[in-house]
Amino acid sequence: MVRTQIYLTEEERGSLSVLARATGKKQAELIREAVDQFVELASDSHREAVLNQAVGIWRERKDLPDFAKIRQSLDRS
Description:
Blueprint: H1 10-23, H2 27-42, H3 44-54, H4 67-74
């Protein structure tokens, strides 16, 4: 592991201290877990998984206009 120094606000430090006591974990462990979660959420694989889950979510909706007809009316053919 590499030692890293960070600056926290008083509120962040207090909240982290309360969370550490409640979970029985060290503050450094909680910070590492938070960084791991942030990195995972920012990763391309996570972004791709979220987009794949969204594919076809409007497929069965009956309250939407016919987008094909709207598009045809806008095409310059």
